[in-house]
Amino acid sequence: QPQLVESGGGLVQPGGSLRLSCAASEIPLNYYSVGWFRQAPGKEREKVSCISKSDITTIYPDSAKGRFAISRDNAKNTVYLEMSSLKPEDTAVYYCVLYPGVCDGLFEYRGQGTQVTVSS
Q1: Cα(18)–Cα(30) distance, rounded to whole angstroms?
Q2: Distance CA 106, CA 20 (A)
Q3: C-alpha of 18 from chain center
Q4: Which 3 state secondary structure label does DSSP give 10?
Q5: pLDDT digits (tens, 9 = 90+) for 49-85
Q6: How many angstroms separate the CA atoms of 103 and 72, rounded?
Q7: pLDDT of residue 16
């Protein structure tokens, strides 16, 4: 069973930055489109970003455009979510998922998530 492991979360002050990583074992990430979701307590899951198999990147929430960026390093078999100018409303558990095709529809695998807390 392939595993996805997210890391890089933590406590950061408003205006700070974090880089989240999604690393995979037993599967090459460049065979998949890789997405990031987040879920805050009491809120619905929100799709944050995705990088397609052809490396087309998308940031979904308007609130994250211009602040978040997604990229992949095939040599490290890792996908990153760079987040800057963080706001308290970015606080959530962030997790990555793998799509066998495009950045849409059902995902095939997901990780356990990493907590991001933005607070002073």
Answers
A1: 23
A2: 22
A3: 11
A4: strand
A5: 999 999 999 999 999 999 999 999 999 999 999 999 9
A6: 15
A7: 98
pLDDT at 1 over 80: no
Q: How far apart are the first and last CA of the chain?
A: 39
Q: How many other C-beta atoms can be found within 10 angstroms of the C-beta atom of residue 101?
A: 12
- The residue to which tokens 């800057």 are assigned: 84
Residue count of the chain = 120
Amino acid symbol at 64: A
Q: Could you write out the DSSP letters of every residue in 20-82? A: EEEEEESS-GGGSEEEEEEE-TTS--EEEEEE-TT--EEE-SGGGTTTEEEEEETTTTEEEEE
Q: Which amino acid is at 18?
A: L
